[in-house]
């Protein structure tokens, strides 16, 4: 009875996640907490404990969280740093426990949860497709009914505004769609690959085509870039000789870890290499490069221990502007708008080289773990493609400590693990 109740609970929460990502941007941490508690009700606690002891990723993560908490002692955020460090560490720990708790579920609970996970992924792709194709009508209606918000090309003059309503431009509304687009960009390849592996080839092709169109039409560029990176890695992994080689996984893992360690230096070189050639480029891309370059200069002053947890937010509050193309440039942006939109650079900035090293080791281990999760050529390629998309999102968008982002990543990893394990993978 307990196992089935937990299974139905996970089924329900999985389906709700798709709606939450579209309409309730601050609710993923609540959903993750409920998922974890529900999974723990039915999980085999001995198996869970054995998993936590046996997986080196959890040991490295524990060391990372200890260092994160210690950094509050020298954080420029002061008392706020300690409070935020405790909350961040708790959120990361809960998100990291989700995959282990799901892995320890009995078969009956996993089977029910799997039904909800499939429905959730289909709903995510379907909702994103409908919203991008029909000008975000669901989001508009929900924001109007529950928040009294009205969106348009421009904000009407005060005389034309109705009392009790809040007016904003379509650009702000489009930003609310990025959460769903980002997650869809991560799950699309693994989900389509799993469907194909499960002999649902027509469904796999339809899901992949629909998802690609939805992501291409979405207002955010980062999910599309991330998925493109995932497709490249998936394509490389599909080469039989590459997939069979015992050197491929360690090589990919080492390359990723090295990129984390070299992130500040690469940021400076990348920014220095652009100039007049990017004056006509998307301002958001130029701004991102300028942020990373500015953060790299700050990192050089505190390379070992960093400025402490939440330092990015404190530095960002200073509101310093910088010319993105030189002193004579007319384009100026915030030097650090609360976070650098890059996990590696943010960790370097706040936790220093020690934190960055622990983060690099964690990614090194996780890359090889994901490689081992699927033995089939296509399933492995799709999982690695999804992992590459997630890593790209981590280093192109969002703050690494954002609660909704941490919680969502934990849930997505746990949900994908259920699909892979149901197919008899290791």
TrEMBL record:
Name of one Pfam family that matches: Wzy_C
GO cellular component, one term: membrane
Membrane disposition: Multi-pass membrane protein
Record keywords: Membrane, Transmembrane, Transmembrane helix
Localization: Membrane
Alphabetical list of InterPro entries matching this protein: O-antigen_ligase-rel_domated, WaaL-like
Transmembrane segments: 7-24, 30-45, 57-79, 85-105, 112-130, 177-195, 202-218, 224-242, 249-267, 345-365, 377-396, 402-420
PANTHER family (alphabetical): LIPOPOLYSACCHARIDE BIOSYNTHESIS PROTEIN PA4999-RELATED, TEICHURONIC ACID BIOSYNTHESIS PROTEIN TUAE
Protein name: O-antigen ligase-related domain-containing protein
């Amino acid at each position: 009875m307990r196992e089935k109740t937990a299974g139905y609970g996970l089924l329900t929460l999985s389906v709700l996640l798709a709606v939450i990502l579209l309409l309730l941007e601050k609710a993923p941490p609540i959903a993750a907490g409920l998922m974890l508690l529900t999974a723990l009700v039915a999980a085999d606690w001995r198996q869970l404990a054995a998993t936590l002891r046996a997986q080196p990723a959890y040991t490295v993560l524990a060391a990372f969280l200890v260092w994160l908490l210690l950094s509050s002692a020298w954080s420029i955020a002061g008392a706020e740093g300690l409070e935020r460090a405790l909350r961040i560490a708790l959120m990361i720990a809960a998100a990291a426990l989700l995959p282990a708790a799901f892995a320890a579920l009995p078969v009956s609970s996993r089977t029910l949860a799997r039904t909800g996970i499939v429905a959730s992924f289909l709903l995510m792709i379907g909702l994103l497709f409908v919203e991008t194709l029909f000008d975000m009508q669901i989001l508009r209606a929900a924001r109007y009914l529950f928040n009294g918000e009205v969106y348009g090309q421009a904000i009407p003059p005060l005389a034309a505004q109705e009392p009790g309503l809040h007016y904003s431009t379509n650009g702000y509304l489009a930003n609310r769609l990025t959460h769903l687009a980002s997650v869809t960009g991560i799950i699309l390849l693994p989900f389509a690959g799993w469907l194909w592996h499960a002999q649902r080839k027509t469904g796999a092709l339809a899901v992949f085509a629909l998802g690609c169109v939805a992501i291409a039409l979405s207002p955010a560029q980062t999910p599309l870039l991330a998925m493109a990176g995932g497709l490249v890695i998936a394509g490389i992994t599909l080469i039989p000789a590459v997939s069979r080689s015992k050197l491929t996984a360690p090589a990919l893992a080492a390359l990723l870890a090295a990129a984390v360690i070299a992130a500040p230096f690469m940021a400076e070189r990348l920014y220095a290499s652009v100039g007049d050639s990017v004056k006509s480029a998307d301002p958001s891309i130029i701004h991102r490069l300028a942020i990373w370059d500015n953060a790299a200069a700050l990192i050089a002053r505190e390379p070992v221990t960093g400025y402490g947890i939440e330092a990015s937010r404190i530095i960002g509050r200073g509101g310093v502007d910088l010319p993105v193309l030189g002193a004579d440039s007319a384009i100026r942006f915030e030097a650090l708008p609360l976070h650098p939109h890059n996990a590696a650079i943010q960790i370097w900035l706040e936790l220093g080289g020690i934190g960055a090293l622990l983060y690099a080791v964690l990614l090194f281990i996780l890359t090889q773990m994901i490689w081992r999760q699927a033995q089939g050529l296509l399933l492995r390629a799709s999982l690695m493609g999804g992992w590459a998309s997630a890593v790209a999102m981590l280093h192109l968008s969002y703050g690494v400590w954002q609660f909704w982002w941490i919680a969502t990543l934990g849930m997505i990893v746990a949900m994908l693990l259920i699909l892979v394990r149901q197919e008899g993978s290791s």
